[in-house]
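// run 5 | inverse folding | seed 20
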């Protein structure tokens, strides 16, 4: 089995294995870079001015949202350029751009400068999707499933450990220094990708791709189901990200402004990812046996029940338990939606549908960040959790109404 720590002499590895080793490290660092900043970004915004509670919530939401808005808009463009000029070029664009932009975030002194850099960060996104596409095309077909599985562990591991690393770095050094160190790591990824990744690029005919994009929904058996599932991806992600802009501020309030706040916020931000990693395979296997409708229903109902009390807790420890439980619902919802998308899409259109799914997920992140800031400004932190539960309830009712095949059949 090929895994990054096992073989360190990259020159002796076959080309596809060398690509995998380098891109595993790149995806790990990219996962860390994006997730380690999230728990304390609102605390950083707080340092950039004298804001009251409501203004701070709005600025925090805007700072989070702008990156995802840009990702949602430009993802199809970067996909077209990758098809025309190769995935490696996109890897270099993304890693170098992220290194510069994230590093520069450590030197800002005004909130609008930070928002501008977060906008540019969205333009630089795309390392992980292009790494996945490169591995899928450059790896022998007999090994591609294993290779993609290993690559996925890189991003997931980085995404899980990132908030904890970020919280520790911010506590030991400073929030500013965390941005600078992250930029330095991404610069290393740029050089590793430049010298360590090989791509035998062969562009696909533009005419075929254009024809597919123009008639995308017409080529699927049930367009309404695809649209509802894409909408569901947006709502689920919106619910997750509505909490992100306020989580460190909420933790600070629960800890009465004292103690290792950034570390606690980092741990709480990481907990849903840990439970998702544990629960997703088991819930997926259960869904294969009993039907995806039941898994989807469980995921929505469990999330609704778990979100409501999060705004009522008086202890950071209880908040951590509830956040861990939310990861179980994510383990039911996201994989089930993706499985249903794959089953309802012709094989030649799977890549296009999943690129749109990525855009809807980014759009959900943007809306969640903005609405989280607005709702917390109007109704307080507990209002955000109630708003999320209400959004998921509406989404579930729409699914049961518009996709009759997903209504669970309880007969045995």
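// decoded
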């Amino acid at each position: 089995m090929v895994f990054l720590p096992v073989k360190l002499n990259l020159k002796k590895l076959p080309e596809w294995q060398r690509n995998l080793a380098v891109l595993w490290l790149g995806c790990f660092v990219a996962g860390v870079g994006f997730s380690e900043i999230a728990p304390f970004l609102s605390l950083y915004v707080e340092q950039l001015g004298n804001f009251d509670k409501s203004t701070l919530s709005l600025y925090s939401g805007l700072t989070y949202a702008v990156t995802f808005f840009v990702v949602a808009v430009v993802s199809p463009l970067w996909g077209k350029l990758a098809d025309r000029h190769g995935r490696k070029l996109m890897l270099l664009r993304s890693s170098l751009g992220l290194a510069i932009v994230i590093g520069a975030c450590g030197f800002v002194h005004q909130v609008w400068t930070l928002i501008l850099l977060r906008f540019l960060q969205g333009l630089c996104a795309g390392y992980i999707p292009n790494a996945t596409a490169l591995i899928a095309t450059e790896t022998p077909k007999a090994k591609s499933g294993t290779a993609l599985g290993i690559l996925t562990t890189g991003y997931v591991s980085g995404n899980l450990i990132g908030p904890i690393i970020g919280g520790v770095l911010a506590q030991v050094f400073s929030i500013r220094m965390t941005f600078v160190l992250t930029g330095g790591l991404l610069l290393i990824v740029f050089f590793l990708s430049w010298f360590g990744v090989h791509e035998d690029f062969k562009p696909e005919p533009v005419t075929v791709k254009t024809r597919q994009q123009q008639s995308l929904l017409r080529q699927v058996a049930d367009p309404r189901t695809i649209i509802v599932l894409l909408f569901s991806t947006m709502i689920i992600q919106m619910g997750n990200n509505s909490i992100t802009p306020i989580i460190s501020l909420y933790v600070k309030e629960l800890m009465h402004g004292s103690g290792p706040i950034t570390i606690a916020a980092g741990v709480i931000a990481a907990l849903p990812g840990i439970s998702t990693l544990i629960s997703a395979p088991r819930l997926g296997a259960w869904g294969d046996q009993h039907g995806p409708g039941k898994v989807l229903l469980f995921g929505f109902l469990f999330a609704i029940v778990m979100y409501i009390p999060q705004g009522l807790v008086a202890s950071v420890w209880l908040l951590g338990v509830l956040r861990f439980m939310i990861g179980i619902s994510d383990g039911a919802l996201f994989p089930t939606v993706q499985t249903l998308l794959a089953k309802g899409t012709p094989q030649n259109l799977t890549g296009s549908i999943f690129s749109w799914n990525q855009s809807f997920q980014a759009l959900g992140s943007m809306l969640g960040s903005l609405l989280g800031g607005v709702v917390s400004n109007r109704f307080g932190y507990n209002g955000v959790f109630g708003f999320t539960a209400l959004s998921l309830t509406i989404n579930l009712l729409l699914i049961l109404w518009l996709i009759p095949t997903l209504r669970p059949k309880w007969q045995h």
